[in-house]
């Protein structure tokens, strides 16, 4: 079976830039093999990031501003795609883009719509390659949440009974794990995927870095609490934490999804107003870090997690990881130690979703999003030449094997 060279692109809810990855992938019966070739992050220009953040609720977005943002983000994604082609050695077969989520419409526990910007035509024009994009909307149209889609990768990667587990210290753990593995991604929003069972389950647990980054920006003028330094100097305010935890979202049944439409500046202002007394910068960051750890741990316990594998930007916050380890009573493993680079995992997910669509295969499962059934996701924008897709695959993949770049 031939290898396909794929460029994967996305920008997460933190809106700090575009994650780029290049990878070789092939499908051999029930097995997908994935060979990362390189990754990079292209930062948004500061003024564009400010405009994107200002467009989020409770901000407003008129048609002119929307058009400008969609175009500017599309051009940035085109630049990122060219970097991805360079990572691929100058040649790639297609690009897969999750774009930049600007709004996720959820009411009454159901997703009614989702909007990602960054027109794929700019990518196709810059690279000459076909582009697979708009990967969430079909799932939403099928009564799903369109998120989190990470459960697709995690169920193939970690759900294999023959997966080779290692402990925090790199010591091999027994295969055919009787306990339940949970994959955790901590971006702006945190999500988990429960894998290894007959049907994977995935959902957003609540805020990941979103409120931490917001408070850091408001209180210090910096976009994040680097290394959790400010949180480490503070004390968790249990009175504020109680108010924050008393949110209906945490009590909703899975599958469910959320975003900065809910966990935003207005949300934080309401909680502080209800508290009715000042909170120091350090105590606020300590409390928000504890909120993220507590809500993730509660979700993992509710799903009977036997071990948790974490990836995403939150991995770089040692204070958050320490809080998670205190809250969890099971091993917390970083995905890098198991062969999956944590910084580029979501970009690799994007490449995988595009690869599945390219081969005519569903990119969702009902348990991960709540959709009515499996669906082939996305739309395809042709490149510089006629669009030639491979014959649709007839076997649904059941496992994903990570290969090193040196593997032939």
From TrEMBL:
GO terms for biological process: 1,6-anhydro-N-acetyl-beta-muramic acid catabolic process; amino sugar metabolic process; peptidoglycan turnover. It is an enzyme of class 2 (transferase). It catalyses: 1,6-anhydro-N-acetyl-beta-muramate + ATP + H2O = N-acetyl-D-muramate 6-phosphate + ADP + H(+). The keyword Transferase applies. Pathway: Amino-sugar metabolism; 1,6-anhydro-N-acetylmuramate degradation; Cell wall biogenesis; peptidoglycan recycling. ATP binds at residues 12-19. Keywords: ATP-binding, Carbohydrate metabolism, Kinase, Nucleotide-binding, Transferase. The keyword Cytoplasm does not apply. InterPro entries: Anhydro_N_Ac-Mur_kinase, ATPase_NBD. Its EC number is 2.7.1.170. It comes from the Bacteria. Pfam families: AnmK (PF03702). Belongs to the anhydro-N-acetylmuramic acid kinase family. Catalyzes the specific phosphorylation of 1,6-anhydro-N-acetylmuramic acid (anhMurNAc) with the simultaneous cleavage of the 1,6-anhydro ring, generating MurNAc-6-P. Is required for the utilization of anhMurNAc either imported from the medium or derived from its own cell wall murein, and thus plays a role in cell wall recycling. NCBIfam families: PRK09585.2-6. This is Anhydro-N-acetylmuramic acid kinase. It comes from Saccharopolyspora terrae.
